[in-house]
Amino acid sequence: MLLENKVVLVTGGSRGIGAAVAVESARQGADVAIHSNRGGEVAEEVIREIEALGRRAIHVEGDVAAFESAQTFVDAAVEAFGRVDVFVSNAGICPFHAFLDMPPETLKRTMEVNLHGAYFMTQAAANQMVKQGNGGSIVAVSSISALVGGEYQTHYTPTKAGVHSLMQSCAIALGKHGIRCNSVLPGTILTDINKDDLADPKKREYMENRIPLGRLGQPDDLGGPVVFLASDLAKYVTGAALLVDGGMFVNLQ
Fold first, then answer.
1. What does the alpha-carbon distance between residue 227 and residue 234 come to, in Å, rounded to a whole number?
2. pTM here?
3. Which of 36, 142, 143, 231 is catalytic?
4. Which of 11, 32, 149, 184 holds its CA 20 to 30 A away from the CA of 49?
């Protein structure tokens, strides 16, 4: 019960990595608030899983890229649970597209969701933690793409590098308040973001062969690492980045 009686907020929490982190946080004793855009029935499934574990949960719907969504989410969590102990910035998109004819609106939307949204949400959560006065933990889901390029991800990789950099700077800015800021860098995880790209058996086999552990990641592979960074087991860890990629990055070097 590494997060016993903590309150955890997760963006992009209705599916994929965010849902897995939300459920694992509940399994470790936390009450959980999830935020998603168009969550609907999928979000309700996550809520039911959390409640089945004996913890409380709420879902807040909104566009993570909108500045006002951040304060709305934090306020809803405080109203429901009284405080914010852990914030997980996970929401992100990656509409694969070639570089030379990248539509401006695709670039803009990816930047707004992945980077601006992470910034606004982290800022709102941090302000609540500072107001409470007893520290906290912020974990951002970056990506191995912060460290390596991708032909069809020229709009995406800069945002994930930015999220990692944001956590490094926030670790400095918020350390005096007892707030730790870290990032996890997932490798290739089977989520809605890449399900179409990996539908080709040859492409999937190629990706698997690049991973020393021999398989693609599952969303729940991120639950433990995020909980660890959020918990007191990592009480002297801040400004760090944890690769969760089955060894892909070291194999690519």
1. 9
2. 0.95
3. 143
4. 184
